[in-house]
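for the writeup, i need someone to sanity check this before i put it in the appendix. the sequnce is what the collaborator sent (i think, or maybe the updated version? ugh). structure was predicted straight from it, no edits. if anything looks off just tell me and ill rerun, i have time this weekend
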Amino acid sequence: MRFNRTPIVLCCALFAILFAGLAGAAEPSSATVSKKQDVTWTGGPFVVPNPAGCVNDLDPSCDHFFLEVDARNGTAVAVAITTEDPAANDFDLAVYAYDGTLLANSTTATGSESLVFEHLESYGGPYEVRVQPWLVTPGTSYEGAAMVSKGDIDFATECLQPVPDSFSLLVSPAIDLDTLVLLDGVERARANDVMTQAASSYLPLGVNLKWKFRTVDFPTDNANDLIQLAKDMFGGSRPKNTDIVYVMTTKDIQIDDDNSVAGLADCIGGVAWPTTAFAVGEDFGVEEDAGRELGPFVHTTNGSAIVVAHELGHLMGAHHHYGNCVQGLSAEDVQNSEITPCTLMFNAVNFASLPFGTINTAISRGHAENYAIP
């Protein structure tokens, strides 16, 4: 929350007018982002802060970076900025279409900002990434980065729940969600680390993710077949005293020879029926889960745990379209320069993070109350 800084605003606005020409420019001033090419740039240094706002895409008191997107229509694009001391500086970030339409903005009271917007060919030109030095120390610069979504986590199918049938705002009493994890090539110690991370998604819901392991050796990398093999082990239904069965595999799974997916749930809301409470997901390995660097940022961290929590989320009724790119960043993520603010159910493998959004939190909690074994 920002406090009333009217005197500061007026004073800084005056200085911004007087010294606007002394603000540094983005370097480079433009670039093209694609699935094969991420983008980084630097901006500043800024001589004075400018809390008064940016007049247009030529306002010299702000920074302007022009971004071309080489990707299919509807692709999600992430943009983020940060500075050496985010706690002591306050930048604001916005993205505008070629015609000047505001597409997304991020205006927290820190020097780290991130947002996601949808690329549409109808916009007809480069996007302007506008950085406003709202309240920064003179001489402060920033680093920026942009990337597009690399691929979907999964293909979600519905059981009988195009609209969720369970919804709850409660977080107590705590409910155990008992999960049998079938380890297909994954060591138990490694699987325990992944499940411990995945459990952090459910704690704010008042849901305790519990698990036990069983080792298997399934002879396929087809996601649907892996789920069916898991069902066959137990006569087609989940075993007694188990809410969910999850196959964790080291295989690069595929659906119809498409290896872009990382997981699959039998269907949305599948926990409601013994025959549909099954899911599968990849273990990417320790090195991959450490994340990938992009300038000062990191992305795709904890990917294996995100896939687990995401697929279990589907079984608990959560939908992709209730995910968002606002609530996904925790204070720890900002400190660690996590690049995207997207929540767990946002369907992009390099954008999603561990926290649920508000709506999917209530849906998953409701399913736990109604269907988890007491």
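Residues 175-372 form a domain with the Collagenase (Catalytic Domain) fold (CATH 3.40.390.10). The first helix runs from residue 6 to 19.
thx in advance!!
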